Amino acid sequence: MSNVTSYSNEQIREAFFNYLKYEKSVSLNTQLAYESDLNQFIDFLNIESMQWFEVDLKMVYGFLSKIQEEKSVERSTQARKAACIKAFYLFVEKKELIEKNPLKKMSAPKYRRGLPKPLKPIELEDMLEVDSGQSAFIQIRDRALLELLYSSGMRVSEILSLNVQDILDVSGKIRDSIFIRGKGGKERIVFIGSFAKDALNQYLIFSSHEQSQTNQPLFINHHRRRLTRHGAVYIIKRRKLILKGDDKISPHTMRHSFATDMLNSGADIRVIQEMLGHSSISTTQNYTKVAREKLQNTFRNCHPHAKKTIDLSKDNK
User: Fold this and answer.
1) Do the domains 121-247 and 4-94 match in fold?
2) Which member of 13, 143, 255, 256 is catalytic?
3) Residue ranges per domain, the chain?
4) Which helix (H) or strand (E) holds 214?
5) How many other C-beta atoms lie within 10 A of the C-beta of residue 197?
6) How far is residue 85's CA from residue 226's CA, in Å, rounded to a whole number?
7) What are 24-71's pLDDT values in tens digits?
8) Candidate list 13, 141, 155, 209, residue with the active-site label
9) Can you say how many angstroms the Cα of residue 40 is from the centroid of all Cα atoms in its chain?
10) Is 95 a catalytic residue?
């Protein structure tokens, strides 16, 4: 057993970050989220003059209560921070830097995960077609990005990491499908629909991409640098205005729409799981609930015996 007290709060924090980056190979987004959450916890310990190896379950619950009182964070954010702290203590336990994990019996704050809210067809068309008031280059780029998001079901981070050559075949034409590396280094195949191919062709021509450069980013900003996640979120924010300011819309909304429309068109849930790159089928099954609600509403509104059946079921209770 290593000498626990030889690691300060700051040193053990950096050791955990290195573990995430080099041993676990977590995505950059996950790494940044864990760093933010653990930094907040370490700052709390420093204010309380506590060392990481002195922490007990009561102290962690005190931290979660404090951030709830001060910042009124959502239950999902509380749960994420709790998961981060628990992962940290699993790390020090695994590295045998502590004799007993104080969070073995910790239960994370419970919260209800909302169902995905896919775009309606008319909303999707509005997002893609309506003039956003920006330059021609920006509008053509944004349409290509949104079409690819919806066509492929890729995560926005996966799309933003693409280079031009990733989507072109040997003749310089846009491929029908490409291989990408997603979360956890898992490789999968995704497909590019005809509308997305048309939008990408127009974008590549208009932006005068140097297609001979294999490391040329596919999506660029007006400085001709790789478009960032922040930039993609900003694109959606501008498009929200077109959709009457729906604050639930995000780049991930396009992924939700892809999965739901695939399911409603008869695609097998396992096929959708593969296309989305979900490790667990239970994650993909969220979309079956969305589709089931749509079917139920259609049945109630359109079937002549639907309301009668529902009324009878109530009478029989």
Assistant:
1) no
2) 255
3) 4-94, 121-247
4) none
5) 19
6) 33
7) 878 777 888 899 999 999 999 999 999 999 999 999 988 988 887 776
8) 155
9) 22
10) no
For residues 219 and 145, what is the distance between their CA atoms, to the nearest angstrom? 8
80 is catalytic: no
Location of structure tokens 């040193």: 11
Considering the segment(s) 121-247 as one domain, its CATH architecture is: Orthogonal Bundle (1.10)
Judge whether 183 counts as a catalytic residue: yes
Pick the CATH number of 4-94 from 1.10.150, 2.60.40, 3.40.50, 3.30.1490: 1.10.150
Catalytic pick from 21, 240, 252, 294? 252
How far CA 182 is from CA of 206, 229, 275, in Å, comes to 29, 15, 11
Give catalytic status of residue 226 as yes or no: no
Q: Which amino acid is at 163?
A: N
Residue 155 among the catalytic residues: yes
Region of 114 on the Ramachandran plot (φ > 0 left; ψ -120 to 50 alpha; else beta): beta
88-141, pLDDT tens digit by residue?
Answer: 999 999 998 988 899 988 876 665 556 567 777 777 787 777 677 788 888 999
DSSP 167: G
Catalytic annotation, pick one of 24, 183, 229, 294: 183
Distance CA 207, CA 209 (A): 6
Amino acid at the residue 11: Q
Annotated catalytic residue 175: no
- pLDDT digits over 253-291, tens only? 888 888 888 888 888 888 888 888 887 777 777 777 667
Give pLDDT, residue 315. Answer: 43
167-222 residue pLDDT tens: 999 898 999 999 888 777 778 888 898 999 999 999 998 877 544 455 789 999 88
Tokens standing for residue 269 = 């849930």
Beta bridge partners of 106: none
- DSSP state for residue 116 in the 8-state scheme: P
232: which 2 tokens?
Answer: 């993609």
Global pTM value? 0.62
Tokens 């729906």: give the residue.
246
CB 200 within 8 A of CB 148: yes
